[in-house]
Amino acid sequence: MGDIEMKPTFSIIVPVYNVEKYLNRCIDSILSQSFKDFEVLLIDDGSTDKSGEICDEYAQKDERIRVFHKENGGVSSARNLGLDNARGEWIAFCDSDDDLRIDALNIYNDASNQSNGDLLVFGHDVLTEDGSVLCRTEYKADSMTSSDYIKRILRYKTESSPWGKLYRTTLTKSLTFNETLKIGEDLLFNIEYALKCKSVVIFQGAVYNYYIHPVSALNNPNIINEYKKMSNVVSRIFKENHLADDYENELTAFAIVNVIQPLTRLKQTPNKEQVEFLKTYKRNQTKLLSDVVGKYMNLFFISPVLANIYLRVLYQNRSIKRYIKSFF
Fold first, then answer.
1. CB-CB neighbours of 143 under 10 Å
2. Distance CA 259, CA 297 (A)
């Protein structure tokens, strides 16, 4: 299992649950990196297929791999166990049905050496299950305060998943992923982490391959309540930190989008309560959201069907946002 005092540059946390179909591809993408100073923490979250066995087989072949078997508790509990055991200078995440691009760790290493940022953010490719590239989410290189980055998160202007990012291990020690949330736990983690940061650096280019699979946990009618629950938790965090006034506009925008998004994913029209909420927003708060969402709101009241198609496409590929906007 290697020297317990080993402190690699990167700790790569991989939550694993019933992914025997994809797990080899994920682990192989990490082990094939030309940059070698890393450890891999495979967190087997009570898998009932052969995923746990696959993890153990890799650990026997490579001492940089550490395997943790636990009872099933969800992806947040798996990531938290990884955080508790990470020994690297930086923490990176990789979902077990995704993988890293071949040069990802070299890019990570160059970025961490060139930047004084506490959070480093990179782009990603979106692929179909057979490996066909659908699109790339790529950001313009930038450096900003943590406050500006939090505003981007609340306006859904940057990917909130933990993958495609580097976190300083020293700043994650008091943080955990919220295990009561079914959605938004990654967004909340990024907000709480950013609150501890001095600066955030965004890099151009993609380091991560995100695969879209036919079955999604978000295709669940109860997801509306989950979005509401997530919004309430985020709102409470800002109140507890006495920051609600500083982020008032962004929190309002965040609440609005969290009403719209689940309806769009489920291809539903809003109920009476939701309609009144949206109408109140349209009358009083139109200028708070970005142009894209504002145009969506206008379109929504003309045709919910067209609006849903518009936002669904936008959600799948933010990189063509400007192209879509040109039609409205």
1. 14
2. 12
Query: Of 260, 251, 321, whose CA–CA distance to 291 is shortest?
Result: 321
Q: What is the mean pLDDT of residues 18-34?
A: 97
Residue 216: what residue type? S
What pLDDT score was predicted for residue 292? 40
Percent of the chain scoring above 70 in pLDDT = 75
Q: What angle do CA 155, 158, 160 make, to 5 degrees?
A: 95
Centroid of chain to Cα 84: 20
- Residue for token digits 């609600």? 244
Please give the structure tokens belonging to residue 31. 């082990």
Q: What is the pLDDT of residues 168-208, one digit of tens each?
A: 999 999 999 999 998 899 999 999 999 999 999 999 999 99
User: Tell me, what's the pLDDT at 38?
Assistant: 98
Q: Which helix (H) or strand (E) holds 284?
A: helix 272-284
On whether the CB atoms of residues 179 and 66 are closer than 8 A, the answer is no
Picking from 229, 227, 244, the residue whose alpha carbon sits closest to that of residue 156 is 227
Query: For residues 85 and 2, is the Cβ–Cβ distance under 8 A?
Result: no
pLDDT in tens, 50-101: 999 999 999 999 999 999 999 999 999 999 999 999 999 999 999 999 999 9
* pLDDT tens readout for residues 228-238: 899 999 999 99
